[in-house]
Write a structure and sequence with these properties.
Layout (H helix, E strand, L loop, with lengths): L2 H19 L2 H11 L17 H15 L14 H30 L7 H14 L1 H18 L6 H7 L1 H17 L5 H13 L2 E2 L4 E2 L4 E3 L5 E2 L4 E2 L4 E3 L3 E3 L5 H6 L8 E2 L4 E2 L4 E3 L4 E2 L4 E2 L4 E2 L8 E2 L16
Parallel strand pairs: 1-4, 2-5, 3-6, 4-7, 5-8, 6-9, 7-10, 8-11, 9-12, 10-13, 12-14
Helix pairs in contact: 3-4, 3-9, 4-5, 6-8, 8-9
């Protein structure tokens, strides 16, 4: 192809692209107009909304405070521990308080609520949360020991902290739960859904979970908002502590009522068991077998298993 022909072809391509780009302003006009309708969702306001990226960063910062030395690339020893924690806690305070204030202010403006002095309240909630960090560390340590005691494949506590998805999901839950109890809007659910996307474990921040809790493997676990779990409970992958399916009207009536089961102390629930309903109670020290579907209560010290299925064994046909 001659040079003149190549230049002509290039100009034609540019003309086509330029014509296509002229459609962009029309699309933008339509999008702007759609923001004025009630059928779509947007946050077009001078008031900033909480930032999901910042909330995820809060969890990262929390992890390096709650597990000093594990999730950093620099050496940490007694010489620089106080300096390290001083820096990290100060930075954590700034980021967490900012997002809490944004969440409270956003809620007040969007729902036209009376002023709660969001700056002062946000700082107060953050300070209260920081004061609970030592107790939170002790609680998480019990979860890690429960994982080690409950999983013979675990070679060390380090392995559990670094690599067990259940431990990460429980850490995020315990952080989100504390913020939920302080009535912080938005942030707890952003945290729990991030943990869900990362681990496959869905724990609502409103659930109540006791100490020494262990989720083995974890993928597909669902724990609903009003579920109550006692101490030293162990559950496996695919377990659901859920609510019975409800109509739209029933959802409105039960929105603030107990809809999820209660699991008492020292219960073991094996893989893919489904336990439903707010009136369902699994008594202490009971064992729920794999694939069980349960909508009624179980007394303490009870084993619940599916009836053994009949397996058929046949001779494999070999290809000639």
């Amino acid at each position: 192809m001659k040079r003149s022909e190549r230049i002509k072809e290039c100009k034609e391509k540019i003309k086509i692209i330029t014509h296509a780009r002229t459609e962009i302003p029309h699309v933008v006009d339509k999008l702007v107009s759609s923001c004025d309708t009630k059928g779509c969702f947007d946050h077009v306001s001078a008031e900033p909304i909480p930032n999901r990226v910042a909330v995820v960063d809060i969890l990262r910062r929390a992890a390096i405070i709650l597990y000093p030395g594990y999730f950093i690339s620099t050496r940490l020893d007694q010489t620089n521990l106080e300096y390290y924690l001083g820096q990290e806690v100060t930075a954590f305070f700034e980021v967490l308080s900012e997002q809490i204030i944004l969440a409270i202010r956003h809620d007040c403006i969007r729902h036209n609520q009376p002023c709660v002095k969001c700056e002062e309240l946000g700082q107060k909630i953050t300070v209260e949360f920081l004061n609970e960090l030592p107790a939170l560390r002790n609680l998480l340590a019990k979860d890690i020991r429960a994982a080690y005691d409950g999983d013979p494949a675990a070679k060390s506590y380090d392995e559990i902290i670094f690599s067990y998805p259940g431990v990460w999901a429980i850490m995020v839950y315990r952080i989100a739960n504390k913020l939920q109890r302080s009535k912080v809007p938005l942030l707890p659910r952003i945290m729990s859904e991030y943990a869900h996307s990362r681990t496959g474990i869905d724990i609502h921040p409103g659930a109540t979970i006791g100490e020494s809790f262990f989720i083995d493997h974890g993928t597909g676990v669902v724990i609903g908002e009003t579920a109550s779990i006692g101490n030293r409970v162990r559950i496996y992958q695919g377990v659901t502590l859920g609510a019975l399916s409800l109509s739209k009207k029933e959802c409105r009536l039960l929105r603030n009522k107990k809809r999820h089961p209660s699991i008492e102390n020292d219960v073991i629930i094996y893989a893919n068991a489904t336990i439903l309903g707010g009136e369902t109670v699994v008594g202490a020290r009971s064992v729920i077998g794999g694939n069980v579907w349960l909508t009624s209560s179980v007394p303490p010290d009870t084993e619940v298993f599916m009836e053994k299925q009949d397996l058929i064994f046949g001779k494999k046909k070999l290809k000639k």
